[in-house]
Amino acid sequence: MHFTDYDMRLAAYAVIVRDGHILLTWYNGKGNGKAGWTLPGGGVEYDESVEDAVVREVFEETGYHITLGAPLTTDSFTTADGRLGGRAFKSVRILFDATIEGGDIGTTEVDGSTDFARWMPLALTGEMGYRSRIVDIALQLIARR
């Protein structure tokens, strides 16, 4: 399929681990998706860099200021059925290593898609209920460290 025949969303996320916990956010389902746990991050705006986007998104969703580390991996998926706006769709997601540099936990966005952030013990991630596939990708990366 030619790139003019589908819509694409570029997104960036932070993988933040501290003291045996991973920082996750609760996606409330606003927009297109099922409510559940995800990584802090989100869509890259037209006029911003991928790096600026993940720093902004993490602050909006968690209240934390971060120092961005290296990209860890990329992930993509497609839907051909048009359920995300009537056209075929491709999502490209970049995961970055990051560390907390300041701030206090709590979402700063108003009427957004994130209800809250929480430090989830890595040992309990199997019991957290529904989560985005991107969380599983991050957990696999963490397990390989």
What features would you describe in this structure?
By secondary structure, this protein is α+β, with helices and mostly antiparallel strands. It has one domain (3-144): Nucleoside Triphosphate Pyrophosphohydrolase. The protein has two helices and eight strands, in the order βββββαβββα. The chain has a four-stranded mixed sheet. The longest helix is centred in the middle third of the chain and has 13 residues, at 50-62. It is globular and about 45 Å long. The mean pLDDT is 93.
| Helix content class | 10-25%
Structural class: alpha+beta
The number of helical runs is 2
Amount of beta strand: 35-45%
Regarding quaternary structure, what we see is: single chain
In short:
This protein is α+β, with helices and mostly antiparallel strands. It has 2 helices and 8 strands.
Question: Layout of helices and strands, plus pairs?
Answer:
Elements (H helix, E strand, L loop, with lengths): L5 E10 L1 E2 L2 E7 L8 E3 L2 E3 L6 H13 L1 E16 L8 E16 L10 E8 L11 H12 L1
Parallel strand pairs: 1-7
Antiparallel strand pairs: 1-5, 2-3, 3-4, 3-8, 6-7
List the main descriptive attributes of the protein structure presented here.
globular, 145 residues, 4-stranded antiparallel sheet, 45% strand, 4-stranded mixed sheet, 2 helices, alpha+beta, 17% helix, Nucleoside Triphosphate Pyrophosphohydrolase
